[in-house]
């Protein structure tokens, strides 16, 4: 059964795991902590538009297969549904590196409750899919990246700051952020 997002009625739930957490850019009625299962946040997308260029790619987050991911669920009023989807498509689908899909997402403040939410999963077959890069390669791309939405370093640091505001840590992103800030932690 194939149903496009626009055919679903009612309020829209959007799952955010990267910059949408700290800069959604759309009007919402509710913001709740949430978790998606079967996918994880990863710095696995070469950015050719927002945080880099084709000549000097940056590196941005994707929701990749496996694991789980904490983030934010936004509830958008039904009246703003089409406008919000159009906005998200313009922002997230600049190069079609993400697959727009529906996922069950669990509320962290009420674990028995879940919503069907719009998510943007990375397309592993896309030329911009970077896969799992070493910390040194991540640092290289993030340091050089600058695109339409600004500096790649700021993107990583803002995302880490938002994760901390939510009261948890993402060990890999935190390690990268420490290196970007010049902090060298010893194990």
Count of DSSP-assigned helices? 5
The proportion of strand residues reads 25-35%
Global geometry = globular
What is the spatial order of strands in the main beta sheet? Answer: 1-3-2-4-5
Quaternary structure state of the chains depicted = single chain
CATH superfamily: Gamma-glutamyl cyclotransferase-like
- CATH architect. name: Roll
Number of domains: 1
Radius of gyration equals 16 Å
The portion of residues assigned to helices is 25-40%
- Helix vs. strand class: alpha+beta
Mean pLDDT: 92
> Using DSSP, what is the number of strands?
7
Question: What is the CA–CA distance across the termini?
Answer: 50 Å
For this structure, what is the CATH class? Alpha Beta
Output the CATH topology: Hypothetical upf0131 protein ytfp
**Largest sheet descriptor:** 5 strands, antiparallel
Q: Catalogue the unreliable spans.
A: 1-7
SSE arrangement, N to C = EHEEHEEHEEHH
Question: How would you sum up this structure, described in words?
Answer:
- It contains 5 helices and 7 strands; from the N terminus they run βαββαββαββαα.
- With about 190 residues, the protein is an alpha+beta fold.
- The protein has a single domain (about 5-180), classed as Roll (Hypothetical upf0131 protein ytfp), CATH 3.10.490.10.
- The strands form 2 sheets. The protein has a 5-stranded antiparallel beta sheet with strand order 1-3-2-4-5, with helices on both faces.
- A hairpin with a 6-residue loop joins strand 4 (about 100-105) and strand 5.
- Helix 3 (about 135-145) crosses helix 5.
- The model is unreliable at about 1-5 (pLDDT under 50).
């Amino acid at each position: 059964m194939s149903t496009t997002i626009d055919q679903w009625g009612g309020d829209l739930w959007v799952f955010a795991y990267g910059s949408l957490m700290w800069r959604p850019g759309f009007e919402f009625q509710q913001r709740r902590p949430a978790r998606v299962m079967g996918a994880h946040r990863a710095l696995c997308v070469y950015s050719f538009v927002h945080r880099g260029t084709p000549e000097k790619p940056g590196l941005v987050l994707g929701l990749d297969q496996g694991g789980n991911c904490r983030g934010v669920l936004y509830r958008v009023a039904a009246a703003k549904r089409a406008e919000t989807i159009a906005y998200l498509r313009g922002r997230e689908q600049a190069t079609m590196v993400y697959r727009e899909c529906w996922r069950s997402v669990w509320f962290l403040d009420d674990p028995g409750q879940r919503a069907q939410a719009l998510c943007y999963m990375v397309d592993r077959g896309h030329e911009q899919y970077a896969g799992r890069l070493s910390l040194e390669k991540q640092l290289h791309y993030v340091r050089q990246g600058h695109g339409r939405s600004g500096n790649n370093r700021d993107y990583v640091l803002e995302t880490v700051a938002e994760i901390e505001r939510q009261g948890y840590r993402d060990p890999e992103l935190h390690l990268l952020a420490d290196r970007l800030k010049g902090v060298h932690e010893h194990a």
